[in-house]
Amino acid sequence: MNRKTLVLPAVAGLLAPVLAACGGSDSGSGSGDAIVVGTTDRFTATKDAPAPFDPAYAYDVGSWNVLRQTVQTLMIQPKGEGDPVPEAAESCGFTDTGNERFACKLRKDLKFANGDAVTAEDVKFSIDRALALKADSGVFALLSTVDTVETKGDNEVIFHLNTADATFPFKLSTPVAGIVNPDDYEKGKLRDGFSIDGSGPYTLEAKTDGDEMTRAVFTKNPNYQGALDVKNDKVEMVSYADADEMGTAIDKGDIDVMTRTMSPEQIEKLSDSSADDSVDIVELAGLEIRYLAFNTTAPSVKDKAVRQAMAQVVNRGELVNNVYGSQAEPLFSLVPASVTGHSNSFFNKYGEANVSKAKTLLTKADITTPVKMTLHYTTDHYGPATKKEFELLQKQLNASGLFDVAIEGTPWDAFVPAERKGEYDVWGMGWFPDFADGDSYIAPFLDKDNFLKSPYQNSEIIDKLIPESRREADRLAAGKTLTEIQDIVAEDVPVLPLWQGKQYVASRDDVTGTAYVLNSSATLQLWELSRGTSG
Q: 273: exposed, middle or buried (C-beta count within 10 Å: 0-12, 13-18, 19+)?
């Protein structure tokens, strides 16, 4: 096979729905040979975060990608993007004109992997449990529009919403709405450790080393009934310490597929048409964003003028060109390009990077310069280029003479608890959308129960604009309201968007399905992988 980089088209708003294949397929590689997938995601169970795989707690892309293989949801994103389609449900839909009553009918003979029947009461238990636990990850906020959950018989579930929410079907496709068995999950307590029991396409066997899961063995669930066509019998996912170690593994043939996160240098090397042709790379549409978050009550950044001055100094073009090259592009809003509601609000307000304008902002606000602060970043979650990115941010800010910036890197398992406890004034984060809609880039950051635990609360956004945007069943019509929100964010700067990125998958040339193994929201779809014929 001659090496090539396959480029799939970017998402243009929400694409037309594509129906998923009918479920319960017995197809597979038939070889009994597990497909091995590498990742740099790390999975730890610590004192601060003892339940990494509980659907009521998990809220990072790595943990969600484990849950999506094992815990079934009523709805699911179809293979070709678009609106969600029924998964554990046979049918779902709003039953009123106001988008406040959503009813689902479960598939017949739906079972958990252990053979227990899945009932409407199990669905109600799962949703009620996530809302009641209110885990500090903030994931429960995705279900914030749920008022009550009603069941009719064993197969019908009705969600009564406290306000109109046209995005609710998307939220039912996320792992927080995963259906769990009350026999395995306590109502009032998170489930510690790495065990998962569900009705999804695979069962999980976790291989651990101390408090870390090093390998996840996904075996096809014989009791699975759903919308997915599972094309293999077993997939193993191996967690590597860094991209170099993962790259060595695919070169040696220890793994078949390499997912997030590769280094920019690896991607460039693999994309070279003259390189070894035993490994191919696929470029996929991506909706990942990176940004700086602010504790808006912290002394160093509590004055809006300081945050505005940072927005005026940061040179996104230089940042992207010097660190990520063609693998990313500057981002001037929370909602990225290609998603309905995108607006270049930060560029409209600040234009190109300009130190003189930043100095004027600080002078008018009587801010003594240089402003001293530390930018925090995680060393092992968003890829090996993160350190270089923050070194360049530090250089840009300090070169202005207006800031005295230090940077500090921390492993993810310590970074997240510190951020949630408010120990950082400024910190870098990435975001993979919960679903491909502007609401998924707005509410998680700005609503009352935002996952950042941000003290920034804007009543116009929370009480008026977010509810207004959710009332629009036609998501194109929500664009005006979403733009208003982004303009407020550009003025107040509770977060500072930096860039949006593409995503890549590399695989050995006897593996097929890599073009669909990640969707635009970075959802890992291991069921799409199978073995083909190299040559």
A: exposed
